[in-house]
Amino acid sequence: MKINANMLKVVALAMVALAGCSQNQVLASLEASVAATEALVVTLQATGKMSPATASEIESAIAGLPVAFRQTATELTSNDNTAEKALKISGYYASTIAALRMLPPDARVYATAITASIQAFLSGLRPAQLVRSVTPEVAREKPDSKRLKAISHRAAILGVQLGGLQLQVARTGPEAVR
């Protein structure tokens, strides 16, 4: 448990370093958030790594992330202005961020990387920050559609994996060994 938690903290620090204003940096921080979620799901899938109660709390907290990632990929390609995009995308993650903050300390350790990566991603979308620091060339950059499709695909896989975990809990009961 300690090794996984430490690895997740290292990943979280790397995610925070990725926050920025260019489209490439925004996509990189979004990809990092997806990667942090994928790493946590792998940990949740491994048996004996954490208590069933902790795993269940984490699964509930991150259940909305696959949809949020797909909605984000769609919104980044929309014709909305920067402020509208930032507002909509922030809304996609609001309930997850609140749920992650409400986790008990033993569960929060596992979610640190996801929380930090989402916050890093959202900080790159802040309209006020973009207005001050983005050059006209960066403001006209179009999001990389291949990267966004890949993010959507990874999010869909995450949704299936989380659904599988929830189905497993439903079949074996919440106190089954994980």
Outline, from the CA principal axes? globular
Count of alpha/pi helices = 9
**What order do the SSEs take from the amino end to the carboxyl end, as H and E?**
HHHHHHHHH
Give the mean pLDDT: 80
Distance between the termini: 12 Å
Structural class: mainly alpha
Helix/strand layout:
Elements: H1 2-18, H2 23-45, H3 52-62, H4 65-76, H5 82-101, H6 105-123, H7 127-133, H8 136-139, H9 145-172
Helix pairs in contact: 1-2, 1-6, 2-6, 2-9, 3-5, 3-6, 4-5, 4-9, 5-6
Structure description:
- This protein is mainly alpha-helical.
- 79% of the residues lie in helices and 0% in strands.
- The chain contains nine helices and no strands.
- Helix 1 (2-18) runs antiparallel to helix 2 (23-45), helix 2 (23-45) packs antiparallel against helix 6 and helix 3 packs parallel to helix 6 (105-123).
- The longest helix has 28 residues, at 145-172.
- It is globular.
